UniProtKB/TrEMBL annotation:
InterPro entries in the record: Fatty_acid_hydroxylase, Sterol_Desaturase_Related
Name of the protein: Sterol desaturase/sphingolipid hydroxylase, fatty acid hydroxylase superfamily
Gene Ontology BP annotations: lipid biosynthetic process
Lineage: superkingdom: Bacteria
Domain Fatty acid hydroxylase: 106-239
GO terms of molecular function: iron ion binding; oxidoreductase activity
Species: Pseudomonas japonica
Annotated Pfam families: FA_hydroxylase
UniProt keyword annotations, A-Z: Membrane, Transmembrane, Transmembrane helix
Subcellular location: Membrane
Length: 299
């Protein structure tokens, strides 16, 4: 199951959503399907945890529920507003709307992935964008549900980077809804605490064994593995990193130079505008991680 979990979760939920949409079932069922995915993710994290400690709440449960609730509500409103916004956007009319929904989604995902990845990459190089993105990096444990934890303004920027080019091409509302669902499923997999085994799939999908390294708290050592869906973008950016010989410790995650980053939801919304972004020297690399990075550099 550790090897099958990623593919079954990804293709199972996204495939089910696509089939139901293709059958004309509407989109009211997308939210219940997402809730089912969250429940499956939480259950499997307890059956096969990567770090058992990360399954324990750290006064962050209410905060994560608020983040997810607000951000997914905004996604629903954004998709619902497309018919109202579309008349004010130039439409190049080049989107293949006559294709089956499955093929449209297969085309939309890599295009959106590139835009979101570039916004993410820029967020680690722009001090202004980092203020917003730091909210997501303040997590000190990774489990699927907190993949949905982002500052809503940063989520808006990523959404614009990923979907605006598609909307200008004429992406239909139903395909946009499926794309938003697929992104939520991918975020659950990226931040999963399931001890999944990727094998060769690590070269394709940016799931948790790859993405965990992006959340390392040790200064710029976490500036790797930016891609949302596909690892290939990081190879093109020169930011791909995989350390199969290093098992993350319970306390390897967070923002090392700002260990006192606020935990409460409202405080996190305000932090980018009023609070200091760094208050300590970067955290010191543990010997095991230092050796793993040195070995990787020699490859």
């Amino acid at each position: 199951m550790r090897s099958l979990y990623g593919p079954l979760f990804f293709f199972g939920f996204i495939g089910t959503a696509t089939i139901l949409a293709s059958l004309g079932a509407g989109f009211a069922w997308l939210l219940p399907l997402l809730l089912a995915a969250i429940a499956v993710s939480a259950t499997c994290e307890r059956l096969w945890p990567y770090r058992p400690f990360w399954n324990r709440p750290q006064k962050d449960t209410t905060r994560d529920v608020l983040h997810a609730g607000v951000n997914e509500s905004l996604n629903i409103l954004s998709v619902s507003a497309i018919p109202l916004i579309a008349p004010f956007l130039p439409n190049l009319g080049i989107w293949p709307s006559h294709w089956p929904l499955a093929w449209q989604l297969l085309l939309a995902i890599p295009i959106a992935d590139l835009g979101i990845t570039l916004v993410h990459y820029a967020s680690h190089r722009s001090a202004l964008l980092w203020r917003l993105h730091a909210v997501h990096h303040s997590v000190t444990r990774m489990y699927g549900f907190n993949g949905l934890m982002k500052h809503p303004l940063h989520q808006l920027l990523e959404a614009l980077g990923g979907t605006l080019p598609l909307l200008l091409c004429g992406l239909p509302q139903e395909t946009t809804a499926l794309l938003a669902f697929a992104i939520a499923i991918q975020l659950l997999l990226q931040h999963s605490n399931v001890d999944m085994r990727l094998g060769a799939l690590r070269h394709v999908f940016a799931w948790a064994p790859v993405h965990r390294l992006h959340h390392l708290k040790y200064g710029s050592n976490g500036d790797v593995n930016f891609a949302l869906f596909f690892s290939g973008w990081d190879r093109l950016l020169g930011t791909a990193l995989y350390l199969p010989g290093y098992e993350l410790a319970d306390d390897d995650l967070g923002i090392g130079d700002c260990p006192d980053y606020p935990v409460a939801y409202t405080e996190q919304l305000l932090q980018p505008f009023v609070g200091p972004q760094a208050s300590h020297p970067p955290a010191v690399l543990p010997p095991g991680l230092r050796d793993a990075l040195a070995d990787h550099a020699q490859l």
